[in-house]
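Final paragraph of the annual report: two paired records, presented back to back.
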Amino acid sequence: MDISEINSPYLQKHIETLKNENEDLKKAFECSYDGIWICDSEGVTLSINKAIERITGLKKEEVTGRNMIELVEKGIFDQSATLKALEEKNTVTIMQKVISGISTIVTANPIFDQSGNIKKVISNVRDITELIQLREQLQKLEEEKNKYQSELNSLLHHIEEVNDIVLKSPNMKKVIEKVMQVAKYDTTVVLLGESGTGKEVMAQLIHDSSPRKEKGEFIRVNCSAIPAELLESEMFGYESGAFTGAKKSGKPGLIELAHDGTLFLDEIGELPLNIQAKFLRAIQEKEIMRLGGVTPIKVNFRIIAATNRNLNEMVASGAFREDLFYRLHVVPVTIPPLRSRKDDIPKLIESFTNTFNKYYHTEKCFSPEAIRMLIDYPWPGNVRELKNIVERMFVTTSSDTIYQKDLPDFLLSHAKPGASYKNGSLKEQLAQYERELLQNTLRVSTTTYEAAALLGIDQSTVVRKMKKYQLSL
């Protein structure tokens, strides 16, 4: 090639284009957010971009010309993707730790010449330290969640054992979780729900789960059971000679006895208006005056009220003081009726059965069919009514097993027509009955072995039929 060819406009333009492309490649190399590390076929560092310096804290002059073998031996890296790519003659991706403590993910790509020999290795480096930290934080949060869930389950189990509260239905579990949350705060709680739902048991649970358990007593006042003419003296107490028949020594009232503890006002809706006014003053002033007394007595008590009446309607009709209503209605907790927590009925029956077996020294149990009928009944009297029926069956049934036929007539009259069967062939009806029988038995069993014992079949048969009918404990 002579000098005229070198100086030709076409060649000069081509050279200029190559220069511009080379500059663009250099800029792209330096501007890349990911680190780029280039080594020769021996693993010697040819160049790194600014992202490598930012990610690893290493300077270009510190590593250029140095072999990756040396950098690993010096502890700059724990391992090298470049060396692995040279060894395997293939693309390699590894997790790499830098001496600065940074964690990176490195992908090394070997570049081959026309003869198939490696001439360079280009590695892409990305900082994943933050990603690892986030993963560790997520794992820690998951562990804490599992820990708290385990503690909650343990607490709920403890509540079931100690307080005889059944917690199988989701809506009842939500009630207990809310109650346990407010129990630790010294706030007023009003328990709402039908008669017999267990409001007193819930009030006792709140007291037992609060700091006041160690300081004072749980005092229950049934506002509907005490005659109106005696209610004031019972609640506020009296001094000697306050009225005819009064004790010479006087008597502290129930409010006074609840000092540092919890005052449970059951059936608060039955509280007479004149007592409501005095009670409101006791709440506001944190003091009471005994009947016939002249010296106020300081009291510090927590209030838990309960009612099966609609207090809003009573306020509207003037039967309940509005100012007292708002004093009491701080944290309302509605306890669901038994008919809306059918899942709890088998466990309640089991709990009451265990209680009465111990009390009466018996070994009675309910048949699955009897349990099915008890589940279907609407229970207007709620848990209290169920407990009474279970006890009635214990004292009126001679056999150890209480069958459907042994149940009271009013329960039998509520049985759904054809509840155990559906239209279909004999095989279909038998399958339906088998499914319902197994389902009812599982409701009162804690293990498949217990269900098998109740049904008089092998445990493996129970498991197989549970799978067949898609049932679970």
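The closing record of the year follows.
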Amino acid sequence: MSIRKFVKSMIATCALVGVSTTAMAGPILDDIVESGELRVCFDAGYMPFEMKSKNGAYIGFDIDLGKLMARQMGVKYVPVNTAWDGIIPTLLTGKCHMINAGMTINAQRNMRVNFSDPYIVIGQSILLNPKLKGEVTSYRDLNNSKYTIATKLGTTGEQASKRMISSAKMNVFETQADAALEVANGKADALVYDMPFNAIYAAQNAGKVVHLEQPFTYEPLGWAVAQGDMDMLNFLNNFLRQVKGDGTYDRIYDKWFKSDSWLSQVQ
């Protein structure tokens, strides 16, 4: 039974027995039921989590999980593509019900939003200009003023660079693709960014970059919702347990992380 049908059934039952039907669920679930939509915020361009295909459709690991969630709710999946630096304000103003965007759980963000249990764990890795192969073997080697690091504005890559590679020069960019291009074109020595993106970029640009693939940070990613709605968090955590338990999660994971067949859709 879909959430919509379940809630309507419960409302009808409560009305028959004279029980108040207010506060049947948290405000987020209530709005999803009333609107018939699950509005999901993300920032397209983060491979393989959320991307825009050549035909204009949104595809990726997060997109598939979001669509699956909406189907199980019995509502329409509505993508809300949002610039990364405005994604939390967009959530908090009610333009989407949740953020499903490869967002790392950290203390600063957790002061503004609530997070589900981690749905995947990644970390920062390094894309290196080939001229430094052998000279730089870890993030520690980059902690020198003679090196220039590129990363994306407002991300954990920027935070990790400031915290752990503070002696290097740092240039920040609006998109991870622009930051990676700086390395490929020899204008920066290294990109510090999320391991999944770096792995895919290195495979697509063999010879132009070298991937130091061992992550040097621990970064759990979670779904974010407005603070104070425990019903929505309960739903998200139970959804995650279910899809991980029944094998659905693994099938979606393997599609996006263990295969590159989807690359032709975005190139």
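Residues 230-245 form the longest helix (16 residues). This concludes the annual technical report; the extension proposal builds directly on these records.
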